[in-house]
Amino acid sequence: MNKHLQEAELQSLYLMMGQGLKPVAHAKAGNVVAIRGLGQHILKSATLSSTRNCWPFTSLVFQVSPTLRVAIEPSDPADMGLLMKGLRLLNRADPFVEITVSSRGEHVLAAAGEVHLERCIKDLRDRFAKVSLEVSAPLVSYKETIEGEVSDSLENLKVRLNGNQDYIEKTTPNGLCVVRVRVMKLPPSVTKVLDESSDLLEVLLGGKVGQANKTENPRVIVMEDENPVKALKKRIIDALENDILSGCAELEKEQIEKCKTIWQQCLQRIWALGPRQIGPNILLAPDRKSKITDTSFLIQGSCHVSELLGFLDECYTHPTTISATLESSIVAGFQIATASGPLCDEPMWGLAFSVEAFIDEFEACHHQTDYALLAGQLMATVKDACRAAVLKNKPRLVEAMYFCELITPTEYLGPMYAVLARRRAHVLKEEMQEGSPLFTVHAYLPVSESFGFADELRRWTSGASSALLVFSHWEALSEDPFFVPKTEEEIEEFGDGSSVLPNTARKLVNAVRRRKGLPVEEKVVQHATKQRTLARKV
Q1: Burial class (CB in 10 A: 0-12, 13-18, 19+), 211
Q2: For residue range 323-336, what is the model confidence (pLDDT) as tens digits?
Q3: Using CB atoms within 10 A of its CB, is residue 381 exposed (0-12), middle (13-18) or buried (19+)?
Q4: In angstroms, what CA-CA distances link 132 with 93, 109, 116?
């Protein structure tokens, strides 16, 4: 008996008549029936057959994915067992809901929207768990990146990759290894391609190259007779060229070709992807032309990811066990750093890191170094250096965006635009439907501002407007979360810094850090004055 085939005995058959169940011995085609005895065998969906020689039906396919996530816990900790049982029952009863456990141990419930979430909480409280629940505020995912554009990358690429000053240098606690990290921003289209191809990269980098042709990813369109690895390589190159041509339109042809050459050389040095080995961040192997002193050697790394993706014919390897151990420590430090950025421990987005680790060979031989201890220290040092490099290069917060399509009558255009302005929406276009007094408005709305959007829109437009929200893309906030007025113009506009209110990026960062229990830099007392409302009476 394999894991995809199970034998079960059906105990009872019921005909579903509204809210009641009518026991029957058999049912004809077209009826909706309930079967008893399958609770331990089916989670979401399955195919029932009286013979083993049966092709299974495909599972249910939904056009959207659950985007509204909340953390759930019982009011009484003693009821955790009942909550776990109720979550399992809810997961079976609702084919669209998703139940996960976060890295912090929270039970996260993901639903399609506010109405769906409200129904799931009600069913969990009244039918499945039958306990009092504490539901957190909606959890919103963010990303972290750095400031940078494709247009100015030509002047900064060589400096960021091979410069002598633009790097972060850290030393392991035992002083035997020096780590230098440089970071630059990937072109947006390349980042998007890597993010959309995560399923294919997971199969490819997991050693299952033969199964790459069987990968089912609805976000990636590949021809049936086309090699998916070659198709992915072509998509990355096309995205890179399109970004360079669109971002460097004012540059000369020779400079554009130089920019392409530099990026192609970077694609031939891909050591690893992160986080989780399949993310949209790249670890570049050190350049062989790096300066090496007489008493130290450079951990070269391996470009096996470039080889698997077809950017490199053959990569160089190091057979020694010590080099392999230290290389794995560098990759592990990179994975940890990209999984939790320095702003609010959110994953990094669209960054390329160049890590150079120099080992003092004389000290290592003289003191008979324990390489197992050095590997752990090297991993922590690489993680800290990567996070420090991001902080040095103007970090930015990246938030998810919805594509919003609104339909409203002419007389309610003003209130509708007021609602969009309060929620930081970017209006793309508006057009009037021919033959009707209705307007169709397209806009981008941040996911963090979408909660309660439909209710507020109906309230301000007397129910005449409707909205459709679909996840669109990730967009970086242009505001600096660490902004402090420095120039005369900034001081004149914002003050000397003591009276500057936190900008939107800073507020979002503080909200995430406060939810995760991280320290938040904020004033405890605002506008402190002497208490004059209480009189002391003897």
Answers
A1: exposed
A2: 677 888 889 999 99
A3: buried
A4: 20, 16, 19
Rounded-to-integer distance, Cα 109 and Cα 120, Å: 9
Q: Please answer whether residues 169 and 179 qualify as being in contact, where contact means their C-beta atoms are separated by less than 8 angstroms.
A: yes
Q: How far apart are CA 70 and CA 102, in angstroms?
A: 11
Strands 107-111 and 133-135: unpaired
Quick: pLDDT tens for 389-410.
Answer: 999 988 999 998 989 999 999 8
Euclidean distance between CA atoms 327 and 300, whole angstroms: 8
Q: What is the DSSP string of 428-460?
A: EEEEEPTTSSEEEEEEEEEGGG-TTHHHHHHHH
Task: Read off the amino acid at residue 528.
Answer: A
Residue 27: Cβ-neighbour burial (10 angstroms; 0-12, 13-18, 19+): middle
Q: Which residues of 464-499 are buried (b: 16+ CB within 10 A; e: fewer)?
A: bbebebeeeebebbeeebeeebeeeeeeeeeeeeee
Residue linked to tokens 């190159």: 237
Report which residue type is found at 493: E
Question: What is d(CA 519, CA 513) in angstroms, rounded to the nearest whole number?
Answer: 7
279 close to 185: Cβ distance less than 8 angstroms: no
Single-letter code of the amino acid located at 46: A
pLDDT confidence of 304, banded at 50, 70, 90?
confident
What does the pLDDT look like over 289-302, one tens digit per residue? 655 555 667 787 78
pTM: 0.77
Averaged pLDDT of the chain: 80
Q: Packing angle between helix 228-247 and helix 198-205, nearest 10 degrees?
A: 130
Q: Is it the case that residue 443 has pLDDT exceeding 90?
A: yes
CA-wise closest residue to 448 among 526, 330, 346: 346
User: What single-letter DSSP state applies at residue 472?
Assistant: E
Q: What residues does 348 pair with on adjacent strands?
A: 144
Q: How far is CA 279 from CA 150, 199, 459, in A?
A: 21, 10, 41
- Report the chain's terminal Cα–Cα distance, integer Å: 87
